[in-house]
Amino acid sequence: MRDRPRVHDFDWTLLAIVGAISGLGIAEIYSSTHASAMVGMQYRQLMWIAVGIAGMFLVSRIDYHTLLDQSPVLYAIGIATLLAVLAIGHSRFGAKRWVALGGGVNLQVSELMKLIIIVVLARYFSEVRTDRLTLKDLVKVSLLTLIPVALILKQPDLGTAMVLIPVAIVGAFLAGIEWKHVAVGVVLIGILVPFAWHMRNHLKPYQQQRIETFLHPEEDQRGAGYQILQSQIAVGAGGFWGKGFGKGSQNQLGFVPVRYSDFILAALAEEQGFIGVCVVLLLYLGLILRLVDNAQKAKDKAGMFVVMGVTAILGFHVLVNASMVIGYMPVTGIPLPLMSYGGSATAFVFLALGLVMNVRMRRFVN
Amino acid sequence: MAPWTVSDSKIPQGRLALVSYLSVGLVVLLLVGFWKLQVVQSGHFADLAERNRIRYIPIIAPRGAMLDREGRVLVDSYPSFSILLLRDEPKLLEKSLPQIEEGLGITREDLQQQLDAAKFEPKFQPIVIKPAATQGDIAFVESHRADLPVLELMMVQRRRYPHADMLGNTIGYVGEVSAQELEKSDGHYRPGDIVGKAGLERQYNSTLEGTDGMRRVVVNSVGKAVRTLDDVEAIPGKPIQLTIDYDLQSLAESEFADKEGALIAMDARTGEVLAIVSRPTFDPNDFAVRIPPKEWAALNTDTHTPLLNRAIQAQLAPGSVFKVVEAVAMLESKAIPANYTAYCPGSATFYGHLYHCDHVHGEVDLHKGIVASCDVYFYNVGKLLGIDRIDQYATGLGLGQRTGIDLPGEEPGLIPSEEWSERVNHHKWWPGSTISVAIGQGPITATPVQLARMIAAVAKGGTLIAPHLLKDAGGLKAASYPLSDDTVQQLTDAMWGVVNEPNGTTSETVKLQNVDFAGKTGTAQTESFALQNKLGKHLKENGWFIGIAPRRNPEIVVAALVQGAGWGSSVAPIVRDVVRAYYDKKNARMQQTTAQTTPAPSPLVATVGAQHP
Fold first, then answer.
1. Which chain B residues are within 8 Å of A253, Cβ to Cβ?
2. pLDDT, tens digit (0-9, with 9 covering 90-100), for A133-178
3. Residues B201 and B256 in one domain
4. Does residue B556 lie in a domain region?
5. Smallest Cβ distance to B4: which of A126, A238, A255?
6. What's the domain range around B518?
7. Alpha helix positions (H), B149-263
8. pLDDT, tens digit, for every residue of A239-297?
9. Helix (H) or strand (E) holding A71
10. Which residues pair with B362 in a beta bridge?
11. Closest approach of B105 to chain A, Cα-based (Å)
12. B534 and B521 in one domain?
C-alpha cells in the first residue's frame, strides 16, 4: 500500500491499445480525406487526441472519490448545461448540440453529460449497501438517467441520448438487479415497444425517416437507406484482403457517407478488408476486456462502477456503430470511439479513460 | 469518510466476468456480420461498387455533311447538348421523375413513353429525354447533380440545314430511330439514335452516319466524372457531294416562291441533277431535334402535301408533253406516213364524243402539230396508232417506270395498254380512251423526272440518262432506245419551233439569244369536264414545260410543273430562266479560263483524256 498514486501505475497496456486504435483512425481519416476538400483533417484529429491525453492526465490526478463527492453538483451542472444548450446553443445539421467555447471551438455538451452520468450513477450504485437492488433504487436510477436522456432527445440527438442508458443497465446488473425486476422490465418493454411504434408519428421527421429507412432501406436510395446501402457496398466490396490503402472506390469517390467519421469503419473495411476489420474489432475487444480487468481490480465498488460506466458507453458505441455499418442497425449518428473524426467525442473518450486511470492508480492507495 | 466509500461488499467478480463473455460474444457476432458481407457476398457488392463508379457515356459520331457540286455546304452538323436519363437505379429514377418533369418541362406521359420504349435495353444504357438542351436546362442539370444523379449531359451532333427549306424534300430529314428500325438493325441502333428518315438523308444514311463511340468514366457520388477510363472513339460519318448546283438551285427555288409544283434540271449528258425543287416543302431543321407531334401531324394532313417530293412522286397527266411520245411512235413505227396531215376545225368527234382543241388550226402537219400543240392532229394520230403502239414507245422512252434516281419513294407513273386495262379494270380497253391518252389526258400519268428524261432521250437519239444526285455515282448506265436521226431531227426542230417560231405555244416569249433552246409545253386538266360542270367553274390546270438546250445532244434538260398554273406557256419562263442561268454561268467560267495564261499541261487533263479516248 502506497499513500500516493503514481504515473507508473497507469494502465500502459490499455494505452497501447488506445494508441493502436487511434493510429488506425488517423490513417483512415487521411485516406478518406487526402484527395478531397477536407485535406489535412488527420492533423486536427491528432490535435484533439493530444488535448484528450492532456485531459486524461488531468482527470487522473483528481481522486475519483472527490469527484463522486461532488456528483450532485456535477449532475446539477450537467442538467443546467443541457437546458442552456436548448435555450442558447446553436444549430448545426439541424440539431442544437453545440455551445461556443470561444476561439471557434464548439463543445457538444451531451458528451459532458456522458462523463457526469458515469460519476453520478457510480455514486448511486455504490451507496447500495446490499447486493440487491430494490425497486425504489431502480426507479431512482431510471429517473436520474432519463432526465438527461429526455433533454438530449430534445436537441434532438437520439444517438447520444441512447448512449446514457447502458451505463444504468450495466450498473444495475452489477449492483445486483433482481431477476424478477429484469422480467418485469422485459415485459414492460414488450408493451412499450408496440406503443412507441404506434407513437412514432410524434417523433421528429428525421427520426421517423431513419426508422422507416432501417426497416425498408431499398425504398430510399438517396436518404439514410442510401447511406446504409453504400456502406454495405463498401464493406462487401472490400472482400477478404481489402482494396488497399487509399484505393477503395466507394471511399475515395465519396459514396460512403461521412466516411471520415460515423462510417469510418466502412471506409476501413473497403480498403483493409475482413482482415483489417478483424484487427480493429479485436483491438476494441481487447480494450473492453482490459477495462473490465481494471474494474475487477478496483479498490472499491465505487471505482468499479466508474470503470464499468466507461466500459458500457464505449462498448455500446462500438456495437451500435459497427452494426450500423453493416446494416444491422439504423443510422443513429453514434461515432466509433477513437477512430471517427470528432473533437468532443475524442475528448470524451480520453477524459473517460482518465477516470479509469484514476481508479487504477488508486487501487493500492489507502 | 463518506459512507459509500467503505468497501463493505465485494466486487461482483462473477457478473464482471459475464460482461467479458458477453463482449466476446458480441464481437464474434459482429465479425460474422462482416464475414457475410466481405466474404460470402463480396462478389455481389464488388459488382455494385463497380456499377456505382463507372458510367457509360455515348460519344455521338457527327453525321456527314452534304455538299453541292462545287463543295458548298448544303447540310452539316453542329455540336449541342442532350440530356440523358440514367436508368440503372429504378427506385431512384421513379422518385426523381416529378422533379425532372418540372425542371425540364417534359410531360409525364412523354417521359413514360420514352422509358417504355427503352424497356428492353440494358439498364446501364441511358436514354435521351431532351435533345437540344437550352442554357436553362443545362444549368438545371448542373445545379442538381447531387439530388438528381439520374440526369447527365451529353454532347451530341445535331443536323443543320443552313438553307432552311431549300431542297427540303430532296434532302429529307433525320429523326429518332423507330421501334421497327431498331428491331431490324440487330443491335446496330440504340433508342434515341438519329437516322435518316426521308430523302437523301435516308438514301445515303449508311454513308452519312458514323459509328458512335463509348466513354467509360469514373464518377463520384454526386455523379461528376472524375476521370476517363477508356474511350472507344466515334467514327464520323462521311460527307457526300451532290450533283446539285447551288446557284441554279437557289434560282429555281426563288422561281417557285409562291407556286405549287416541281422542277428538275439535269445535265442531259450525264443525268446529274443540277437543281430539284418541290413546293410546298418543309424545313428539315424542324426535324433536326425532335419534331413535336402536332407539327408532324400538320405536315401529314396538309392537303398541299408538303412531304411529297413532287419532282419524283407527283404522278400527273403529262398533257401535251406526251405529244412528243406520240410523234416518236408515229415516225418510228411508220404506221402513219411522216407527212401525214389533218384538218383542225377546233374540235373533232370520235366514237360519238366531241373532243376539243384550243384553236382552229386548219391544215396541220407533224411540225405544226407540235409547235402549235394541235389536239385534233394528235387525236387522229393516236387513233391511227392504237393504245398498244403508244404504250410500246412510251415505255421505251422510260415512262410508266421508275427512272432509278437515288431517292427513296420514286413513283412509276402509268402508261396504259390493253393488257393493263384487262388486268386492272377487268374490261377491254375502250378505244375512246386512246383519244384522251393521245394528248396526255385520261388514264396516263408521269412524274417530272420521267418527262425530263424522256425529252432529253428524244433529243439524244434514244439515250436514256440515269438521273442521280450523288456526284460520285459509279456504275450508272444510260439505257438506250435507239431512234432514227430523222425522227430526232424532226422532233427537235419542232420543239425549237415551240420556243422560237411565231406560232409556237410560248409565243416567242422565252427565246434566248445565243442559246439553242427548245422545249414542249403541256397543259393538263386536273378534273373531268363532268366535274367542271358540276362545280360550275374551271379548276386551274397544271402547266408543264420541258426545255432542252441545245436542241440536239442537249447539255441541259429542265422539267417544270406548276400546279394550277393554267397554261404550260406560263411555266416556260421558269425553265428559260434556269437554262439562261446555266449558260451565263458556263460562259463566265469559259471566259475566266481563256483569260488565264496558257495553262501548262497538267496530269489531270491527261487522266481525263485517258478516260475518254
1. 52-53, 218-221, 226
2. 888 889 999 999 999 999 888 877 778 888 999 999 999 999 888 8
3. no
4. yes
5. A126
6. 246-284+307-595
7. 168-171, 179-185, 199-203, 205-208, 246-255
8. 999 999 988 888 888 888 888 889 999 999 999 999 999 999 999 999 999 999 999 99
9. helix A71-88
10. B344
11. 23
12. yes
